[in-house]
């Protein structure tokens, strides 16, 4: 468990020096947007499939 903390701290320090805060926040929101979009598409496909099964 201690090894993971060392790696996380190293990654945090590296990100602090390499990315500006605005860039980091923008990347986080962009990743969240794409994740949400993919989940919404999957849910719509599942609901469509369920309605097709019920109508038959």
Q: What are the salient characteristics of this protein?
A:
56 residues
Helices, strands, pairings?
Elements: H1 2-18, H2 21-55
Shape: elongated
Straight-line distance between termini: 53 Å
Helical content stands at over 70%
Quantity of strands, as a count:
0
Report the mean per-residue pLDDT as an integer. Answer: 83
The description of the largest β-sheet is: none
Task: Tell me the fraction of residues in β-strands, as a range.
Answer: under 5%
Computed over alpha carbons, the radius of gyration is 20 Å
Number of helices: 2
Order of helices and strands: HH
Low-confidence stretches: none
The helix-and-strand class reads mainly alpha
Write up what this structure looks like.
This protein is mainly α and 56 residues long. Helices cover 93% and strands 0% of the residues. The protein contains two helices and no strands. It has helices spanning 2-18, 21-55. The protein starts with a helix and ends with a helix. The model has no long low-confidence stretch (mean pLDDT 83).
What is the structure about, briefly put?
With 56 residues, this protein is mainly alpha-helical. The protein has helices at 2-18, 21-55.
